[in-house]
Structures are given as C-alpha cells and as structure tokens.
Design goal:
189 residues, mainly alpha, Rna Polymerase Sigma Factor, Chain: A, Arc Repressor Mutant, subunit A, 2 domains, 63% helix
C-alpha cells in the first residue's frame, strides 16, 4: 500500500485550507483503504470499520489546519486513526492483524497465477508468524508490512519506542522467512 504522493498531499491540504474544500475527497480516495483496513484490524467487522473510517476522516477534516507538514501526511493521518481506534476499543481484547483478516488486499493488476500463489503463501506464513508476537505490537507489523511505514513513522503513530518496533519487525521477518523455508526460525543457518 502506498502512501500517495507526499508533496501532492501537502499541496492538496494547502488548497483545502485555502478554501477548496471539495478537494478533501482526493485525500479520502488516497487513504480510505488503509484506514478501513486499520478499522478491520481493530473492529473485525465491515460496518464498524466503515463507521470508524468515516469518524477518522471527519476528525482529519476538522483538524486539517493542525497538519504542519513536519511529518508525512499519511503518518499524521494514521496517528489520528490509531488513536481513534484505541479510544474506541479500550474495552476490546486485541488487535487483529490485516494478515489474519479475511479482508483481502487487492492483487496488483499485473499479477500472475504464480505471483498470486506466492502472495497467498506469504500471507499464510505471516499469519502463523504473527501468532508468536504480543498482540499490542501486531499493529506495528501491519504498519510496516502493509502500510509501508518506516520505524520512525510507526513510532510517531503508536508511541512505541523505535527499538521495540525494530525488534518485533525483525522477529516477524525471521519467523516469516523460517515459515517460507520450512525451518524452525532459529538463527543457526
């Protein structure tokens, strides 16, 4: 999942703030799948995820003047989404990774049967790998693997220390590699 165009996002925000409010739909179109996916991870049902996405975009719109451009627009947006989800689900048990959800990310237009098989195998391996991680860090793995966020962006979104995020992403990669290789995941190779 791409972040869109950072420079383009900033231009759109500036134009919206200058009065072209109808351009907000461009930002929604760019990020609706990612926000909806995060909603699925937290709420596990499509209606709640849709409501969550609407709530997030309403908050983003209302707070758009607070975006100062010191981070990527996507990082700022995901932080709002993450905090909205945490506030909404404080009584919920766990975060369900996008990899574990039946919600499918669209296959690339140029995918082949072989690439689809590999994609499915990698997804299944990632699901098994994520089982070994503490639930509260699964969101870090999603942000890294599915949203393409850097460690610093994940820290800005979640508030978790970068070293902790790196450790969990490294562990997930190691477990994933082991799952795909059919090994036990130990470091002795």
């Amino acid at each position: 999942m791409s972040h869109g165009d950072d420079y383009g996002d900033k231009l759109i925000v500036d134009q919206i703030l200058a009065g072209q409010k109808d351009l907000f739909r461009l930002l929604v179109r760019r990020y609706e799948r990612q926000v909806y996916g995060m909603g699925m991870g937290f709420f596990r049902n499509r209606d709640d995820a849709r409501d969550f996405a609407q709530d997030v975009f309403l908050k983003v719109y209302r707070n758009l003047s607070g975006f100062e451009g010191r981070s990527r627009f996507s990082t700022w947006l995901y932080r709002i989404a993450y905090n909205t989800a945490l506030n909404s689900v404080s009584r919920r048990k766990e975060y369900l990774s996008l990899a574990m959800e039946t919600y499918e990310v669209e296959a690339p237009a140029d995918s082949t049967p072989e690439s689809e098989f590999l994609r499915k195998a990698a997804r299944e391996a990632l699901v098994k790998s994520l089982d070994g991680l503490p639930e509260r860090y699964r969101v870090c793995i999603d942000l890294f693997f599915f949203y393409g966020c850097s460690y610093q962006e994940i820290e800005a979104i979640t508030g978790f220390p970068v070293n902790t995020i790196k450790s969990h992403v490294f562990r997930a990669k190691k477990l994933l590699r082991a799952e795909l290789d059919g090994t036990d995941g130990s470091m002795d190779e």
